[in-house]
Amino acid sequence: MSGRGSAELLELSGIALRVAEEAAALVQAGFRAGPRGLRVEEKGPHDLVTQFDRASEDLLVARLGALTPGIAVVGEEQGAARAAEPRGGLVWYVDPLDGTTNFVHGHPFWCVSVGLMDDDTPVAGAVVAPMLGLRWTGFRPREPEPLGAATAPAVAGEARRNGERCAVSATASLAHAMVATGFPTVRDRAPDNNFDAFVTVKRKAQAVRRCGSAAIDLCMVADGTYDAYWERRLHAWDVAAGSAIVRGAGGVITALDGGPPDYHVGNIVASNGLVHDPIIALFA
Fold first, then answer.
1. Does residue 77 fall inside a structural domain?
2. N or C: which end of the chain has fewer CB within 10 A?
3. Nearest-angstrom CA–CA distance, 233 and 255
4. Which domain holds residue 239?
5. Residue 47, annotated ligand binder?
6. Can you give the pTM of this predicted structure?
7. What percent of the chain has pLDDT over 70?
């Protein structure tokens, strides 16, 4: 059964951008606020949350609920409510402040991420990184629209960076590729902490970057800055928006073994497609 069409997803990506910009403005007010203006708590080792994470999520849930009634909203900071996380159908997944540790330390590499999944496939989203002066949007239907359909627009999907169309890179060799990754918050006690893979890819790629925001990393694959990105132990709110934008930009996303990705498990590789197989081969 086919999912939502391009025209509807274009509209929904616009809604995602609107609410992400509102939330980003709220969060930006607390950037570099210092210890008196910032309340920082630990959800666990290496896992921080501030009052701006929570206020941003409250705004996103309220605004998306008002603008798209009937579509469930799942956010990172909902705690126990995530135990009833919906599967299937249309669901918004929001990260109200992706890169909280960066935010707390005054590092500008953070964003607000709003992504829509259709039967667990990322189909539309927006990511706003105000301190970088960047915003990305994108959409691509879960399944191809029928050729000749009266309602089908000329384009099946797209990605935009600051309003301009963008696409994945044309880098064809891993030796010439800039690749991004990250590490899980449980890296001090989890065997799949990505350390070994980092060293392996670092030996083969031209460069590997680790900047602390999965959503921005994915968007930088979509706009051709990075040629590929991989990470382990992510969540749907980390990757829904960025993955939709990568799909809209013509990129490829799989599990680490090259199979279909499970965005709720979050062991994924995203790339321009040309360097995808060489990277996956390193994880075998």
1. yes
2. N
3. 11
4. 174-282
5. no
6. 0.92
7. 89
